[in-house]
Amino acid sequence: MSGVTATSPVTVRAPRPSDDEAVDMLPGLFVPEARQWLSTSTGRVAPDGYSWMQGVHWVAGSGLYEPRRHRSHGPRSFGPTTVFIAQLLSELSPCRPGIEYLMRRTGLSERSVEYHLQILREAGLLAYIVKGTRQRSGPSLASEFALMLPPAFDAALGIRTAGEGAGRRMTGIAEAGRELMAKLAAKAARKVRRPRPTMSSRTVAKGARKRAAEASGTTVSAGSRCTPMGGGADGSSTAGATPIPPESKLASGKRKSPTPKEPKAKAVGCRKLNRVGRRFQLARELTQELDWLRGCSVPRIAWVARNVADAGWTVTDVRAWLHLRGEAARVRRGSGLLAVLLSNAVTVLDTPAKRAEAVAQWRAAQEAARRDRIQQVRTQRERFEGDWQVPTSRAVTRQVAQAMAHVHETANGGRHKDQAPAADDRCEDVGLTDLQIDQMRAQARGELMRGVTDLIDLAVDSMGRDAAEQLYGTDLMRRARQLASAARSLHMTITHR
């Protein structure tokens, strides 16, 4: 680099050792979309926000990047608004700004903020690290940027770098570029204020006339002349021509304002929705409450449910009607299924009384399903989460199996069918001793004390009620039936210590 010249603090010209180098350097300030990522960028990452703002002011003053050269819409130049947005980005670490945040800080619209971010990317000052996405059922994710310095900036100031890729670091600067670097440093240290919105010349002239009319206190009509009979201007004060109000309007001591008061703004959320608004409101509530409509387009659901929305249906009425029609277990296209289910809903439930009856039936079904789930959970906990454990003794298990098989054979016409039970209610004819029968009944009695009736229920299911009563006795069978009846009640909880 032979030298760097700057015609003014705003306009910066790159050095021109030769025509070929100048041609190669000028296109460097426009970065195509494929090169706007950190992995594909030709620039280097700025060490901090202060150094990056030096590059931003250099691009703004050089005039080498012109937005209108690449598109016919958007901002006309790299102006103060773009610099102000760049200053906001330099204060973020990591640089992950949201569009709503920039709109609130700058007062610009969403499209304008996107235009200025695009200008910074095309000038080589920003590079994507992660590109933001929009989720239909959740919040949008902001993009994360890397603060970059374009290669043209290093070439113009004679900055020497070491390393490769975007991680290059500055090792020195040419003597000719030190003065310009000092000027850029002064600009970077100075905070840029938020630019005021620009007004057209017609708006400015209209505002000036309005302020002049308010200051004079008189209203000049379009057809009146400022001077009488085309003569010179009257030298008397216009304050003396101000009309005095009558005494009736001054009785209270207060004079009414000549300008009418503006009506107070309506409270937010109190505006009455029109027909289209009610359709979209119902569609939004349906997509939130029905699982098989999650992710569907709200405008499409609003069009499908337009008839019921126009008839005054609520989301509760729609859910009650879907309960009467029956919902599918597997849904491939939610909007299509909803269109089929709502085909004749307005014809069937044509009055508010019918809709109220359908809602009552739906709520009753919901309550019954809730009670059934509670009963299932309670039964599962009592069966699997109690302190009782299945007998681990093989001898006891073998004895129970032999007794159940013997009694089952007798009940079905086996060789012990004609034998009658003993008077003491013991199964002496099943081949078990008194000690074994006492052990089985003691085991069943211990389970009943814990609220578990598994052994007796197994005997009843396999042998029948009469045979199980012969094996365990009348008293244990009665207590088992009482526990089973109490377990089915919602007003009682069986537990053990």
Write the layout of secondary structure elements.
Layout: H1 19-25, E1 44-45, H2 49-62, H3 80-90, H4 99-106, H5 110-122, E2 126-130, E3 144-149, H6 151-157, E4 159-162, E5 169-173, H7 178-189, H8 201-216, H9 275-289, H10 298-304, H11 306-310, H12 315-325, H13 334-341, H14 345-348, H15 352-384, H16 394-411, H17 434-449, H18 454-463, H19 465-472, H20 474-487
Strand proportion, as a percent range, falls in under 5%
Low-confidence stretches: 1-26, 215-240, 416-430
Side-by-side strand order of the widest sheet: 1-3-2
Helix content: 40-55%
Distance between the termini: 91 Å
> Structural class, from secondary structure content?
mainly alpha
SSE string:
HEHHHHEEHEEHHHHHHHHHHHHHH
Major β-sheet annotation: 3 strands, antiparallel
How many beta-strand segments?
A: 5
Quote the average pLDDT: 75
The quaternary structure here is single chain
Radius of gyration from the alpha-carbon trace, in angstroms? 44 Å
Structural overview:
There is one protein chain. This protein is 48% helix and 4% strand. The protein has 20 helices and 5 strands. Helix 12 (315-325) crosses helix 15, helix 17 (434-449) packs parallel to helix 20 and helix 18 (454-463) packs across helix 19 (465-472). The chain is elongated and about 115 Å long. The termini are far apart.
